[in-house]
Amino acid sequence: MEIWINPACSKCRSAISLLDAEGADYTVRRYLEDVPSEDEIRAVLDRLGLEPWDITRTQEADAKELGLKDWARDETSREQWVKALAEHPKLIQRPIITADDGTAVVGRSEEAVRDALSR
């Protein structure tokens, strides 16, 4: 199990606390320092069953600067979104937990973190 976190994020800290309380075996990836490649982002999206715009923090300053709200959300623009996430990792929703069964969840709630633990 791996968890992508921003240590300044309260949701990330809560997820880590719950994983620790449950005795989970996991690896922490500080994704703002260890930035995921486009291939890693595509792999996580596949595991999540989501599209890149589904995990994009559209209220971030970088998102506004890029004009993401006006970008198409379709197959032809998918790679543009993936590239933006790789180039601007602050835009990636957090925390993302990759479960042992090959799936992943966005662990913003206790329920989502527990879901990852049960997989």
From TrEMBL:
It comes from Streptomyces justiciae. SUPFAM superfamilies: Thioredoxin-like. Belongs to the ArsC family. Keywords: Oxidoreductase. CDD domains: ArsC_ArsC. It comes from the Bacteria. The lineage of its organism: Bacteria, Bacillati, Actinomycetota, Actinomycetes, Kitasatosporales. This is Arsenate reductase family protein. InterPro entries: Arsenate_reductase, Arsenate_reductase-like, Thioredoxin-like_sf.
